[in-house]
Design brief:
By secondary structure, the chain is mostly helical. It is built from 3 helices and no strands. The protein has a domain of about 35 residues. About 0% of the residues are buried.
Length: about 80
């Protein structure tokens, strides 16, 4: 396995573990406030609603990885 693929694999594993832990804590917090219908939104989330959304983060990370793959294979082809 090349060093580039090893770095990408390690990065994917780290992101997956972070996402799993983040989702677990978000679900745990949701269970705690289950009785309340309208809860106060955290100020950090109000300031940055798109950056704090894991779905948007997944799309951004995927897009960046695809661009990295395209650039990597383009430079390998023209070498």
């Amino acid at each position: 396995m090349s060093s580039f693929m090893m770095i990408l694999t390690i990065g994917a594993v780290v992101i997956s573990i972070f996402s799993l832990v983040y989702t677990y804590y978000a679900a745990k917090q949701q269970r705690v406030i289950r009785g309340e219908i309208d809860t106060k939104i955290d100020e950090d989330v109000q300031d940055h609603p798109y950056l704090r959304n894991p779905v948007f983060l997944a799309y951004i990370i995927f897009g960046v990885l695809v661009l990295l793959f395209i650039f990597y294979f383009t430079f390998q082809f023209y070498r």
